[in-house]
Amino acid sequence: MITQKPLFYAGLLALIFVLPFLFPAYGVQLAAMWLMIIVAMTWDMTGGQMGYNSLGNIFFYGTGMYVAALVFIGMSHDIGAYTDASGGGSFQFTDAQYFSGVFFGLIAAGLFCAVSAVVIGMLIFGLRGPYFAIGTLAVAIAAGELVSNWDWVGGGQGIALPIYPGDIDVGKKFFYFLFAGLGVTIFIFLKWLYTTRFGAAINAIRDDEEKAEAMGIHTMWYKLTTWAISAFFVGIAGGLSAFQLIHFEPLESAYQTINLGIFMVVCVLLGGKGTLWGPVIGAIAFHLFKEVTWAYLLGWQWVALGGLIVVTVVYFQDGFLGWVKQQKPEWFGVRVDNGSTENAGTAK
Amino acid sequence: MDQIFSNISLLFEFPVVNISILLEGLMIGSLFALSAYGLALVWGVMNVKNLAQGDFVVAGGYVSWYFSGFGMNPLLGVPLAFVMMWGLGWVIYKTVISRVIERDLFTSLLATFGLAIMMAQLMNLMFGSDTQSIKLEYETLYFFDDFVSVPIAKLIGVIMALSLAAAVIYFMKTSRMGQAIRATAQDARAARVMGIDTEKIYAFTFSLNSAICGAAGAIIVMVWLIQPFYGITYSIRAFVIVTAAGLGNLPGVIAAGLGIGALEQYGAHIFGIGYQQAIAVLLLLFVLFIRLLQQRRSRQALQ
Amino acid sequence: MTKIIEVTGVSKSYGGVIANKDISLSVKKGGITGLIGPNGSGKTTLFNSIVGYHPIDGGSIKFENNEISNMQVQEIARLGMLRTFQQTRIYGEMNCVENMLISLPHRKLTWRERFSSNTKVDYERADHLLEFVGLFEKRFLRSGSLSFGQQKLLEFAMALMNEPTVLLLDEPTAGINPTLINGLIDRLKRANTEFGITLFIIEHNMRVIMNMADTIYCLAHGEMLASGTPDEIQNDQNVVDAYLGAH
Q1: Between chains, do B49 and A145 touch, taking CB under 8 Å as contact?
Q2: Residue B157 belongs to domain spanning
Q3: Domains held by chain B: number
């Protein structure tokens, strides 16, 4: 096993690297798959590992888009004048302005979302279970409605950004590797985080928050920190999407509550909640399914999506990894029988 | 910003405008209260938080609208929507809800959210995305030098809503079924031990809720507008009302319903109609926050 | 000995039912204090008031001379006052060692320590305490698969892992096999003497509490009936009547 694991991860990394060169025509779709993986993994931090099912993580995606775009524009031009003209061609960006704008825009998006997660979290993390889900959904809907009425940031028209300066294929790979890099970073980060005391503490909050409080665990601190980390990554992903999409508007692409906002939950449920690989597997499976079938459904896509949610929730709630775990509990280090106890303690 | 201030000062310069807004708000609020009552019923009895609540309302509206297209009297649409939505509610209970009822709460929430998406999209495919309403051929009453207008159609709508509410409450208080429902709400296991078929109670309650929503929708389509994607706003309003009033608090539900209706009308008057949905959602956050503070004072969490 | 918990004039009612009426008691630091009384006499209500599960109607509760009756559960727990539950609460999906590691004294962890993995010392302490309560053999089993009595022992071990100053135990022997009770009494006493943890125990089993406690309070119908040493309580006519009357 010891020699196989590094090999497996090395192979995976190589595959991630060559994918855009193997399928140059699908650069955008591959980047979209990474986006799905990213939002699924970050949703699982609160939803799967901590037991706080948010329906409003899309808020950070949309906010990330806006913050990144506004910082990007603001570094070179006057924002109000830019949005008034809806990016009408008279505003030019040099290469240096473009790349520094993207860089600082993404950083700002991540930080702003992390801070807003803490602020919103302080207001609504006292809510448990369904109240939390509905409260977060309300935050996302409210943000979309308010932003679409806010002319300074483009109102209902949204914001148009300049395209990648340079070759269009290079641009596609540029965004693919940014998304992939972010996804791999998150995966490695989570793989480490879930082995620490931090991971154990948020699992304790999920399994019995009242007991965790009675044991003196700083539940609020853990909840805020987890959500802030999750929001940080989603915010960056949102900013990346803004630069990749070039144009976005508030309700359909930024705060797309029933679109990406619910996809991420479905991905996690399909793959298996509260596991490291579950969200990744679920996101890939869902994205492939969606890309293949969407075109054939002719307007019935959204009905099918609703149906998929219902069927997943009703019949397949533990997801793929949950199903495997039920079949082969010993793969996950679970012991129920009275067997011998040698060297199992180091499995963690 | 100036627009907002002039809208506010208008309220003080012409106090009759207040009456007009309040009246409108109370009339609409009575319909909100109706669907909120259904939500509280399902929530209390089977602990399912139904996010498809608003889509039941809209679906009821489309039932009435569709059949009145064939020349049916729109007033008959209310009982018709009641019956048809009863059937739909029963089917949904048997296929989906009964399978998520014993699971954790997020499961039922997500399942009904999926249902909400499905219903909204189906209605969009079937009836188109335009807003629809039924025009009733009744007169309009005018008061205060024509400043305040009350269409008789709206008055009829409110009266129908009130009589439906009264009928449901009377049924819950006096009938055997109502008693069994209330017993199940208090303790389903004890009810089962006492020989109540809770499965039947659940199916009945969910169908009843769906029917109440349908009837409310059939009234709304006569006095207001419906559109396939309006459902989520109604769901959120119902949640606002139930969260503010608490479960099993009927006077509270009515008061909160009327209050939300009035507040929304004031908000729309002051900030403009574009903010209507935002106001409904922000009200939810506000109510959740107030409840949270209350709970914290009693050293509890809101769950 | 100094008083570590001081309850003065605490009242609590649910709706119209008075669960606690003007209760005053104190727990001595380093000792074992017992709380007895017939069913429904308000013992668990008093515990819940002390650890912050609900607001009290009147009176004051002090822990190490600080007023705690307005604090949240977790704030009180972080002061070093822990409780176990009458119906045990453990993390059923995790194994015993994981349960122990979660119970590390989080109040003592710095920001960086929260983000690091458990150390060898933590594992050793977990193993040691599991051995102490006699669950060492079962330490890698899913704790939900343990029997009720074993879960109680696990919860006790978790509480010890948390290094509390005071431990409030709600009926530690209820549901435990009678043959194991002597062992449990011994462990509770050792927790008191070896780890220096002040114990405050609700108990129904007279033999157990008379054996352990140095001071005993007796509640009946929400009021303080008697207090004193085990001998005094045993010979108190009011206490005898309350127990016989309850049957």
Answers
A1: no
A2: 2-297
A3: 1
Q: Is residue B303 part of a domain?
A: no
Residue ranges in chain A whose pLDDT is less than 70: 1-3, 86-89, 333-348
Please check whether residue A313 lies inside any domain of the structure: yes
Distance from CA of B228 to the nearest CA of A (A): 13
- Whether the predicted pLDDT of B250 surpasses 70: yes
Q: Where are the domains of chain C?
A: 1-80+165-183+198-247, 89-163
Q: What is the structure's pLDDT at B282?
A: 87
Return the pLDDT at A166.
83
C89/A210 Cβ within 8 A: yes
pLDDT tens digit string along B283-294? 888 888 888 888
Looking at beta carbons, which pairs linking A331-335 to residues 24 or more positions away fall under 8 Å? A334/C95, A334/C142, A335/C95, A335/C140, A335/C141, A335/C142
For residue C133, give the nearest of C186, C171, C170, C81 by alpha carbon: C186
Q: Give the angle subtended at the CA of B240 by the CAs of B238 and B241, to the nearest 5°.
A: 65
Our measurement of the distance from residue B161's CA atom to the centroid of its chain's CA atoms, rounded to an integer in Å, reads 11
Residue A41 lies in a domain: yes
**Contact between B298 and C72 using a beta-carbon 8 Å cutoff:** no
| Domain that residue A76 falls in | 27-347
CATH of the domain at B41: 1.10.3470
Q: Given 3.60.40.10, 3.40.50.300, 3.40.50.150, 3.40.640.10, which CATH number is that of C1-80+165-183+198-247?
A: 3.40.50.300
- Report the Cα A245 to chain-centroid distance in Å: 17
Q: Of the candidates B49, B96, B288, which has its C-beta nearest A127's C-beta?
A: B288
The answer to whether the Cβ–Cβ distance between B243 and A149 falls below 8 Å is: no
pTM of the model: 0.87
Number of CB atoms found within 10 A of residue C31's CB? 16
pLDDT of residue A89: 59
Please tell me which residue of chain B has the smallest CA distance to A48. B106
Average pLDDT over residues B240-259: 84
| Of the ranges A66-70, B246-250, B293-297, the best mean pLDDT one | A66-70
CB contact C144 to A (< 8 Å):
no
- What is d(CA A211, CA A218) in angstroms, rounded to the nearest whole number? 12
Report how far residue B282's alpha carbon sits from residue B120's, in angstroms, rounded to the nearest whole number: 22
A184 within a domain of the structure (yes/no): yes
Contacts of B292 in chain A (CB under 8 A): 123-124, 126-127
Tell me the residues of B at the C interface, defined by beta carbons under 8 Å apart: 296-300
pLDDT-flagged residues of chain C (< 50): 246-247
CB atoms within 10 A of CB A3: 7
* Residue of C45, C49, C72, C76 to mutate, testing the B interface (most B Cβ within 10 Å of its Cβ): C72
Contacts of C73 in chain B (CB under 8 A): 299
Q: Which of A262, A176, C10, C242 is nearest to B121 (CA)?
A: A262
Which residues in chain B are contacts of C48 at CB distance < 8 A? Answer: none
User: Which pLDDT score, from 0 to 100, does residue A202 have?
Assistant: 93
**pLDDT tier at B300, thresholds 50, 70, 90:** low
Number of domain units in chain A: 1
B-C contacts at Cβ under 8 angstroms? 11
What residues in C contact A345, CB-CB < 8 Å? 97, 123, 139-140
